[in-house]
Amino acid sequence: MAFKIIASQCTACGACEFECPSAAIKFKGETYIIDAKLCTECEGAFDTQQCASVCPVPDTCVKAAA
């Protein structure tokens, strides 16, 4: 499973890109996206998902549906 960014809520602040330990977050178009193939949900690196913890807008970085 991976995380995703809700584009309509993303302020494009960039905080998440630099916190991602797997470099899965990139700027595309007018928002940031998470590459599901690279996202590790921070397992093995952190206890919580860094994108969600640094995002200034609640519930913008969320677990992707299966």
UniProtKB/TrEMBL annotation:
Cofactor (UniProt): [4Fe-4S] cluster
UniProt xrefs under Pfam families: Fer4
Residues annotated as signal peptide: none
Domain 4Fe-4S ferredoxin-type stretches: 1-30
InterPro entries in alphabetical order: 4Fe4S_Fe-S-bd (IPR017896), 4Fe4S_Fe_S_CS (IPR017900)
Keyword ATP-binding: no
Family matches, as SUPFAM superfamilies: 4Fe-4S ferredoxins
Domain of life: Bacteria
Any one Gene Ontology molecular-function term assigned to this protein's record: metal ion binding
Keywords noted in UniProt: 4Fe-4S, Electron transport, Iron, Iron-sulfur, Metal-binding, Transport
Name the UniProt record assigns to this protein: Ferredoxin I
Gene name, Swiss-Prot/TrEMBL: fer1
